[in-house]
Amino acid sequence: MLAFQVIQDRAAARAGGARALAERMPAVRPPEALAALPDSYFLSVMTRRIFQAGMKHSVINDRWPAFEAWFWGFEPEKLMLLSEEQLESAMQNPELIRHWGKLRTIPVNAGELYRVSQAEGGFGRFLANWPDDDLFGLWAWLGRRFQRMGGQSGARFLRLAGRDTFLLTDDVIAALQASNVIDSKPTRKADRQAVNEAFVTWREQSGLPFAHISRMLSMTVD
User: Fold this and answer.
1) Backbone dihedral region for residue 121 (phi beyond 0: left; psi -120 to 50: alpha; all else: beta)
2) Which of 43, 94, 174, 207 has its CA 20 to 30 A from that of 120?
3) Distance (Å, whole) CA 205 – CA 176
């Protein structure tokens, strides 16, 4: 496995220097900041990720103020009670993205998020307390508990929310293969464990969050 300094040097060379590389790193919230965020923030981010899937992200981001206004700031206690008639009314609003399947996730996910929050003292606290060496487990949990959070969506929701996580994009997987961490896409338990261990080792070597390590890895391949 490559030492992280080699990966960082390669990424910096491609970015145009250390300063340019730093400017391309995603934002990561410390655990205490994540735990302090309201549940409405996480439901909004989760729903935005659901709408971003398969669509141009800038289009969704431009429409998001209208979503926030229409859906009462994404307060889970209110949205878990949304009726079919209210969702049908949302389908008539040209300021929103009128996708029935995605709109119907809102009350279901609001209810799940509310229940987790009540049991754990806040949804942000729950995410912050999940062990960093079991991110595959967190992704799987999100996929089981919430609608349309399977595949890459769980990890991308966490990234969008600021919860530290790596992503397994095609570029990252290629970089992991080039770094002799895995031989193929990590679908087997042993390969996922190898990926976890590699990221933990690189974090210990660099002091950087997983999100930054992941982004640098993606920049080392063509």
Assistant:
1) left
2) 207
3) 16
Q: What is the pTM of this model?
A: 0.96
Angle at CA of residue 210, ends 206 and 214, nearest 5°:
100
* CATH of the structural domain 31-161, one choice from 3.50.50.60, 1.10.340.30, 1.10.3720.10, 1.10.10.10: 1.10.340.30
φ and ψ of 188, to 5 deg: -85, 155
* Tens of each residue's pLDDT in the chain, 222 residues: 999 999 999 999 999 999 999 999 999 999 999 999 999 999 999 999 999 999 999 999 999 999 999 999 999 999 999 999 999 999 999 999 999 999 999 999 999 999 999 999 999 999 999 999 999 999 999 999 999 999 999 999 999 999 999 999 999 999 999 999 999 999 999 999 999 999 999 999 999 999 999 999 999 998
- Percent of the chain that is helix, strand, coil (3-state, to 5): 70, 0, 30
